[in-house]
Amino acid sequence: MGRFHTFLFAAPYYHFVNGGHVTFLAGDKVIYPNHGLGVIERIEEKTILGTTCGFYHLRIIANETTVLVPVANADEVGLRRAISDEEVERLFGLIGDGKIDDHQNWKGRFKDNSDKMRSGSIFDMADVLKSLTFLSRSKSLSFREKRMLDRARALIVTEVSDVIREKSTVVEGRVDQALERCFTTKARLAERATASRPKARPAGAAVVARANQSSPRTRAS
């Protein structure tokens, strides 16, 4: 068996042998895609079978599990800092804007939503939240989509609660209000689009109009 060594580092931007560098410090709160809010407990350099790699020891807040994230792959896996207060307002604006992805095909919808969840972007998760919540009002979601909807909602609420330092129940209320605003706006836009379309003439009227156009005019004697 190869030799295994562990070294701890606290300084930022320490460059590891494999090219990775530390962009977070021990104690930083970060977002790990599909897991949510976590705290970096420590940063380690491990030498395994002659290869030296740096790792973030990340404690996930929701379930108190620990995840090892290679420093060199942090960007690739989507590890990021939590959004700012200004971005929280942008988030609620996005949730309530009335724009909803409408995929009729289940397979395509599930793939697109899965990709958005994996991206780690809270704004992508907001799109998933809107589309699946809207869909759930007209039909029953599959088990997998129901689980995805619950996950998107929980991840959004957890991150926003930590950023603005509010209880999750307060944030959930704001999310529900934004969703209602979204669906109301969507319905209003749909009504306007319908009203702006030219009305089709009845079939009988169209036949008479064509007949009048094709028949010769009778001159007065």
What topology emerges from the helices and strands here?
Elements: E1 4-9, E2 29-32, E3 36-48, E4 51-60, E5 66-70, H1 74-77, E6 80-81, H2 85-95, H3 106-119, H4 122-136, H5 143-164, H6 168-196, H7 203-214
Antiparallel strand pairs: 1-3, 2-3, 2-6, 3-4, 4-5
Instruction: Tell me the span between the first and last alpha carbons.
Output: 116 Å
Helix content: 40-55%
Radius of gyration: 27 Å
Largest sheet: 6 strands, antiparallel
Summary, kept brief:
By secondary structure, the protein is of the alpha+beta class. It has 2 domains: 4-81, Thrombin, subunit H (Beta Barrel), CATH 2.40.10.170; 85-196, CarD-like, C-terminal domain (Methane Monooxygenase Hydroxylase, Chain G, domain 1), CATH 1.20.58.
